[in-house]
Design brief:
homodimer; alpha/beta; Rossmann fold; seven-stranded mixed β-sheet; two-stranded antiparallel ribbon; 20% strand
Chain lengths: 209, 209
């Protein structure tokens, strides 16, 4: 099973690494970290992760995962990335995104008429691509799977493993990564946070654009 | 506030990137990804992450975070890493680990007589370093903070931000990364998984050693 993560400068590190850590454990997974131009990709917090292969050399992935970014203008302007997504999507078993990665799927024309999610602050922007925004953490629509903001890629990947390899294998991976989350606060969604926290988070996100 | 992540070959990607994504958002954070020898570090799932600076050039970090690995023999044999940890720990505000990173803190002599946690399969190994194993997800003992397996680094980092910058700032970061976990299965701890899942997870982990 060939799994391709589409990297680019400005991606958010955890958007990539959350699902990567899970999907790399799929039985028979062959994982590629790929980009339009291979080499070091600088994430939006500064960390550099290596894209080891060119997207154009991967023509028949089974699973594609597009991470998001705090600066979506960067991947949205990458015509080669969008063209590659359009080209390979027809043959994938699953095409997936995390966070604003769904805007990239949208810009590639893959979300027309589909239900999809994204980071809470980007959810409405999905309409611009003909998608129907859904405020769930993970949204399946046909072969397309979209996840909400940043950390949601872990939940998405485990759900995907459940569909591909069965619930028990997903549980094995969950236990290996000891994914028994116990957040010390309960402010992970706009409806759970105080107005002041929502305002500050919005400010942080808009300042990063 | 100077935050140093201690990288090494064979580290687990999510052990590093979970707390990195959170702590990099601390107000006034200066984050360094450092290693005994700078350069690309290959994680235990294959992904390469760049260590941009040498540990020896960072002599006064405020926070140190040591990620874990499925192959702890690698960092445990890195005498320079252990020596650096011993040298800087006296001056840190917080010295932290994720997963088997606590074994590395232990090998550096920092856990003598202290309560600490680790990946569930490595918990008992803490006794070899004079520590008292505690099966909690995040354990604070003085200036030392240890987290359980892999994904627990996110919870640990949010708890740390709460202590450093207050609950509201931690909640802002939680909302920015939309950390509202909804695992599709409930098998993230040995006590929650079936015996068959525990057996398979143990096999996966032991095969990686």
């Amino acid at each position: 099973m060939e799994i391709v993560f589409a990297l680019y400068d400005d991606m958010t590190a955890l958007d990539l690494v959350g699902p990567y850590q899970v999907l790399a454990m799929l039985p028979d997974a062959r994982v590629s970290l790929a980009a339009t131009t291979p080499g070091r990709k600088r994430t939006d917090s500064g960390m550099a992760i290596e894209a080891e292969v060119a997207l154009r050399d991967l023509t028949a992935p089974d699973i594609v995962v597009v991470p998001g970014t705090g600066r979506p203008q960067s991947p949205l302007a990458d015509a080669s990335l969008l063209e590659w997504l359009r080209a390979v999507h027809g043959g994938t078993t699953w095409t997936a995104s995390v966070c604003t990665g769904s805007l990239v799927l949208g810009a590639a024309g893959l979300l027309e008429g589909r239900r999809a999610t994204s980071h809470w602050l980007a959810l409405e922007a999905l309409r611009g691509f003909g998608a129907e925004p859904v405020g769930d953490r993970v949204v399946f629509d046909g072969r397309i799977v979209t996840a909400a903001g940043v950390s949601s890629g872990i939940d998405m990947a485990l759900a995907l493993v459940g569909r591909i390899a069965g619930a028990e294998t997903a549980q094995v991976i969950q236990l290996v990564i000891e994914y028994d989350p116990q957040p010390p606060f309960d402010a992970g969604a706009p409806g759970k946070a105080t107005p002041q926290v929502v305002a500050r988070a919005t400010q942080v996100l808009q300042a990063a654009l």
